[in-house]
Amino acid sequence: MLAAGESSAERLMTRNGMRRVPSPRVELFQCRDFVPPGLCAKLIDLIDANRRPSTIADDNGDAYFRTSETCDLDADEPAVSRLEELLFALNGIDPAHGEPVQGQRYDVGQEFKPHTDYFTPEGADYSRFCSVAGQRSWTFMIYLNEVEAGGATRFKAVGKTFQPETGKLLCWNNRRADGSVNPATLHHGMKVRKGVKYVITKWYREKEWG
Ligand SMILES: O=C(O)CCC(=O)C(=O)O
Ligand SMILES: [Fe+2]
Question: How far, in Å, from the CA of 179 to the mean position of ligand 1?
Answer without folding.
Answer: 22
